[in-house]
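lol ok so funny story. i was supposed to be doing the assay writeup but got distracted and ended up predicting the structure for this chain instead. priorities right. anyway since i did it might as well share w the group, maybe its usefull for someone
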Amino acid sequence: MENTAQLLLVEDESKVAAFIKKGLERQGFKVDIAEDGRLGKQFFDERTYDLLIFDVNLPYMDGVELAAYVRTKNTQIPILMLTALDTTADKLAGFDAGVDDYLVKPFDFMELIARLKALLKRVVRTNESTNLLKVADLELDLDQKIARRGGQAFELTAKEFALLEYLMRNRGRVVSKIDIAEKVWDIDFDTGTNFIEVYINYLRKKIDKDASSKLIHTVVGMGYTLKEK
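and the output, tada:
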């Protein structure tokens, strides 16, 4: 998960934000930057993230307020707070608001990476224990064999379910027809057949047809990927 995780960094010091973003992207993370709390709130509402990094002191809406808002919408997403103040009172206020971890500025960059990876691993374990896969507003309940988008359940055949599970487990990664044939159908792919395209179209009609944002994308000459645009 670490190599494809999408992060939101809310930091009003532009040089600090650019430094952190550059370092995280070198580690394989994808990073959006918001320079104030209000914009951070907007990004969180409109996009999907795996982890949030907030500075404490932000214009319009501080990091603690922003964390408290996030927790009214999502109780699972990890929040790491960056602060220049290493005081117990400040940390307690953050923890009460739902912050998972603190890092005091100035910090060693590899310490930041270690904290992020630890938080992301915890989320992976939680998701595995509940057997629920999520990408944007698409959910796949592996225990009850139920698929939902935007809270609305839809029916899938056994193979459609298996194909969607494979795409969701490889979110953001391009998977070839050969990959799909081997992992979902357990067969060698015959280039003279189009059954994979047929099943991809079945899924698109059920998942993307009535949705404003499409999740299943074709990468011409390479395969398919499931992700937010």
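The mean pLDDT is 86. The two ends are 19 Å apart (CA to CA).
back to the writeup now i swear
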